[in-house]
C-alpha cells in the first residue's frame, strides 16, 4: 500500500440508479483537486439499466473504474468490499449513488486526514438524508449544481444532516461519545485503506437485508481505538427519493439481531432495543436518538 496510485479512492456502490449516479459523478468531476489525485470506483451490484454506458461518458473527465457483481439481491457490504479490494488510493471515501458533494469535499477529507495523521475514520456531513421529495427541502434544488444547491440550504437554515441534534449537543466532538458508531453511516465517510485491512472490511453476513453493516464496522473501529470524528466542512447533499420505512425497519431489525449475536454487549443490546424507534425518528422527526445519553442513563440505573 506504500505505492498507492491515488491520494483517495471514492467507492460508490450502485444498483439501477443510472440518473442518480450521473449526478454523483458530475459532482465528483467538479472537485477542486487535480483529477490525478483521486479515482472513482463504481461497484455495480447487478444493474440492468444503462449504468455502464453512462459511466463511460465520464472516462475523459475523471479516473473512473467500473467493477460488476451479479445481481444476487441486496449486497451493499459485498459491493463496498469489492471496491476496497480494487481501490488504489491511500484513503477510501464511501459515497452512496444519489449523493452529490461540494466541489471542495475531497480536499476537506484529505486535509482532515492529514491533520490527524490518517488515523481517524471521518464522517462527512450530509444534508437531507431522509428527504423523500424536493418538497422536503422547501426550495428548488439543482442536482447538477451541488455547490449552489447546498448554498441555498445553508442560507435557508432549516434543512440539516439528521444527526445535527447530536452534533450540536456535543459540540461536534463525537469522538468523545461512548457509542460514536451509532452515527457511522456508509453514505458519506472516509478511512485509510490500511486501517480497513487491519480491522476488517464490511461483514458480508449482513448482505440480503438493509442496515447495520456500517454500524458493525464503526463498532470494530471504536473497539480498536480508532477515533470516529465529524468533518463538518466535508459537505454532501442526499438527493430525495422515496423509501419504504417499514421495509427498512423489518430488514434492519433482522440485521440488528445478527449484530447483537455477534457482539453480545450492553451497548449493542441497547442499540437493538431502540432500533425501530431510531429509524422512525430519522424518517419522521429528522433527528436521531441520543444513544450516548441512553447508555449513560442505563448504566446509572444499573449502578455500574
Walk me through this protein's architecture.
With 304 residues, the chain is an alpha/beta fold. It has a single domain, classed as Spore Coat Polysaccharide Biosynthesis Protein SpsA, Chain A (Alpha-Beta Complex). The chain is built from twelve helices and eight strands. 44% of the residues are buried.
Fill in the keyword field for this structure.
304 residues; alpha/beta; Spore Coat Polysaccharide Biosynthesis Protein SpsA, Chain A; 8 strands; 18% strand
Taking Cα atoms only, what radius of gyration do you get, to the nearest Å?
18 Å
Find the CATH superfamily. Spore Coat Polysaccharide Biosynthesis Protein SpsA, Chain A
Structural class: alpha/beta
Label the CATH architecture. Answer: Alpha-Beta Complex
Question: What is the average of the pLDDT values?
Answer: 93
* Uncertain ranges: none
In whole angstroms, the N-to-C terminal distance is: 43 Å
- State the shape: globular
Please work out how many helical segments DSSP would assign: 12
CATH C-level class is: Alpha Beta
Tally the structural domains: 1
- From the 3D structure, determine the CATH topology: Spore Coat Polysaccharide Biosynthesis Protein SpsA, Chain A
Please outline the major beta sheet: 8 strands, mixed
SSE pattern: EHEHEHEEHEHHEHHEHHHH
The portion of residues forming beta strands comes to 15-25%
Helix content: 40-55%
Strand order of the largest sheet: 3-2-1-4-7-6-8-5
The number of E-state strands comes to 8
Amino acid at each position: 500500500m506504500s505505492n498507492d496510485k491515488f491520494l483517495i479512492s471514492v467507492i460508490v456502490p450502485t444498483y439501477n440508479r443510472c440518473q442518480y449516479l450521473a449526478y454523483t459523478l458530475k459532482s465528483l468531476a467538479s472537485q477542486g483537486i487535480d483529477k490525478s489525485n483521486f479515482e472513482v470506483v463504481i461497484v455495480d451490484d447487478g444493474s440492468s439499466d444503462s449504468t455502464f454506458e453512462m459511466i463511460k461518458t465520464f472516462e475523459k473527465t475523471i479516473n473512473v473504474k467500473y467493477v460488476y457483481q451479479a445481481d444476487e439481491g441486496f449486497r451493499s457490504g459485498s459491493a463496498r468490499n469489492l471496491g476496497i479490494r480494487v481501490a488504489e488510493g491511500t484513503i477510501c471515501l464511501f459515497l452512496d449513488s444519489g449523493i452529490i458533494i461540494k466541489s471542495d469535499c475531497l480536499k476537506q477529507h484529505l486535509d482532515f486526514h492529514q491533520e490527524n495523521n490518517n488515523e481517524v475514520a471521518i464522517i462527512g456531513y450530509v444534508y437531507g438524508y431522509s428527504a423523500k421529495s424536493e418538497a422536503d427541502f422547501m426550495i428548488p434544488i439543482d442536482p447538477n449544481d451541488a455547490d449552489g444547491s447546498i448554498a441555498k440550504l445553508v442560507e435557508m437554515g432549516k434543512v440539516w444532516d439528521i444527526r445535527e441534534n447530536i452534533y450540536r449537543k456535543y459540540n461536534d466532538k463525537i469522538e468523545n461519545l461512548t457509542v460514536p458508531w451509532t452515527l457511522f453511516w456508509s453514505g458519506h465517510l472516509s478511512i485509510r485503506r490500511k486501517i480497513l485491512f487491519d480491522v476488517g472490511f464490511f461483514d458480508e453476513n449482513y448482505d440480503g437485508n438493509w442496515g447495520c453493516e456500517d454500524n458493525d464496522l464503526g463498532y470494530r473501529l471504536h473497539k480498536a481505538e480508532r477515533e470516529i470524528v465529524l468533518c463538518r466542512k466535508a459537505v454532501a447533499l442526499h438527493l430525495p427519493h422515496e423509501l419504504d420505512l417499514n421495509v427498512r425497519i423489518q430488514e434492519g431489525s433482522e440485521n440488528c439481531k445478527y449484530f447483537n449475536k455477534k457482539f453480545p454487549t450492553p451497548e449493542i443490546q441497547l442499540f437493538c432495543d431502540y432500533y425501530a424507534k431510531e429509524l422512525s425518528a430519522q424518517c419522521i422527526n429528522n433527528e436521531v436518538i441520543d444513544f450516548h445519553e441512553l447508555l449513560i442513563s442505563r448504566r446509572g440505573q444499573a449502578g455500574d
